[in-house]
Fold this protein.
Amino acid sequence: MEILTQVFTISLIAAILRTTAPILLVALGGAFTTKAGIFNIGLEGQMLMGAFFGVLGSMWTGSALGGLVFGVTASVLMAVIFSVFVVTLRANEVVVGLALNIMAGGLTISLTKAIFGVRGSIVNPAIVGMPRIHVPLIHDIRPLGQILSGYTPLVYTAFALVFLVWVILFRTRLGLYIRVTGEKPEAAQSLGIRTARMQHIASLICGVLAGAAGVHLSLGYIVMFAENMSSGRGFMAVAVLIFSGGDPVKVLLGCLLFGFADAASLRLQTMGVSSYLVLMVPFVVSVSALFLLSWRQRPKIIRETLQHLTAPVVAKGQGS
Amino acid sequence: MAADIAADFAIEMIGITKRFGPLTANRDVSFAVRKGEIHALVGENGAGKTTLMNVLFGMHLPDSGQIKVNGAQVEITSPQVAIGLGLGMVHQHFKLVPSLTVAENIFLGMEIVRGGLIDSASQVAAVRALSASSGLAVDPTRVVRDLSVGSEQRVEILKVLARGARIVILDEPTAVLTPQEGRDLFRTLRGFTDQGMTVILISHHLDEVLEVSDTVTVLRDGAVIGTEPAKGLTEARLAQMMVGRPVDFGRKRRDGTAGAPVLTLTRIHARDDRGLPALMDVSLTVHAGEIVAIAGVDGNGQTELAEVVAGLRGPSYGRMNLNGRDIAGAPADIVRGAGLAHVPADRLVRGVDVQASIMSNILMGRQDSSAFSKGGMIRWGRVRAEAAALIKRFDIRTQGPDASVKSLSGGNMQKVVLAREFSQGKQFLLIDQPTRGVDIGATEGIHDEIMRRRAEGVAILLISVQLDECMKLADRLLVMFQGCLVAELDPKTVTVNEIGLHMMGASHNRKASA
């Protein structure tokens, strides 16, 4: 009980928002591919490339913005490879996605070795991290300032994007075409909508957001790159996308759940709970969430009784 | 015949030939449609109707021949070009997006955009106006998923009109409609031609072709057999032009009387996949040597009824008895063991494995019987002999038992299913949509096979959305509406109109309020 009260504090809320941001960014990117009918399992790899090249760009240009540009570019390149294979060449999306994930893991490790001559992680004072934004007025009001102020720009961007992505998907022509492409491609094609182009566009947007998510990991709160830094967040995003269907509001809710699990596990770690157990928390949460959702949607075997049958059976007003 | 001056034609297709590899789908076809007429294009499956219309609509390029629209020669290289020329096509399988509203579907690809956002209010208003002027009633704000098939079709037609079509092509428009809905559609089409528009109707319902069209063109084996005014043509003459020989249309002659009950359903209730009531209080009996037909508009519980009877869906309440055995909720193999043979509605889903050979398909379900297996090994020699015998008996047009089912036409695939199910000496036959997508010639053969089983004393439950089929074959006709059996009719005396009313639930509401 004592542990629980220590875990649930104002600073935990701030931590949740912080840890939610990268999953949210990458999942909102995945919302585009999901809606366009692509099962994009390559999010993890795109994020990892974003994280690595974010660090590289930040060192080379000496600015966090340069890092963002580099990271996003690298991730977009991954997205281009993905969509050329999947959309143009009609390769299996799971195979291509997995291959790119494995490639990203290997590439970042070997480049770390080749460029920095080290293994494991890149820690360097030349890496410029993201600035924190102190929202005027609110910043000094407690506890509001603690919750709403002091994040990096990407955190604010992530949450603002929930609304923006919703508008794009449901109120603009591009979004409509992307949705139709995923839902009923033959209908779209018969009306002259180029579904392949829509899928390429969706994949590119996804690449941008996945790259930003990666940059957030390496230049956000921890300013460094570590091997396999994305540590399954791309897969969590895939899980969120599967049960949200790419709907931005549901994506937000799903990501908050994972953000919570992430933040809580960090918290538990500082309290001396075994780190091996703690690292399992996000995945236990994801498996449980999937289980609960499918349990709720399981086909129900209904047995009617005579009482049901003598009463009006359906709202349509038919007696038996 | 059609030798007026050229300017009077909306469409002229001259000497069209279209080949797909070794197959010639259209052979030197010349086809002309006068402005302001309803022109029916009829022919069996595979006669080349759809190919011809796909050429006209720019989905296929012809190998030779030319096309004129309103007297001017044109090159139709894509559907967009066709739409630009004022052509519109309503496909048999609707191309609507279920999650979008009616207005969104109609404006898909030509949205009204204001300030970067889609202006749905303007779209809704435009659809309202179009709906009023064309007489096609729809609610533009409804989501298409919730619409009836008839409304979906109206949306498809509005979609075509919204793109400025003056020449409308409809591919098998009445296949999914009740007789009454069909008549409404024809009234609408007649309204179109009154406004100077032109309608091309692809159909194989001969009665409606004669009823609604001004001119009929018959295709057979990719070539035009003739173009004649509908006035003066008879169904028998049309069918003969289509098939190339006289076709029997009358009710099948029958002898013998029904025997003991074979299948009994008592107060069966069942839920659909979403858990909603799909069957309510269905009770029926099928006797030996009797055909009981279930008529009704698609989606009124027929699918669930077939699944419940076949052991593919457990009833939520009620009793079922087949040959004296209680089969309620029993799995398919038990039900089959009790005497069921099943011809499923969608042969591609449950009837055959298209990748497998004919003989593998013939074997399916009997792989454990001692006739075809020994010590866990399949006796392929016997299977091959059985398949060869059935190919002969059922007149399946194929290269042999080893040919894959994929290589067969729809009618021959259906014959493979019939051959397997009819040859096992079962006492009860569940036949669901036996002639869906099967041409007239093959339909006749299938109907004869069904009548032969009846004469052998097999009890038959026939589910069909084709009224003429029900009336032709059935001894008793039951009508299904919203999961209930609402009427039992005598097919010898009942009129199509009367059945249509029951199919729309007219009698049911009366009964419910009584």
In short: The longest helix of chain A spans residues 10-35. Chain A touches chain B at residues 167, 171-173, 176, 179-180, 183-184, 186-188, 190-193, 299-305, 308-309, 313-314, 316-320 (CB under 8 Å). Chain A has one domain: 2-319. The beta strands of chain A are 121-122, 225-226.
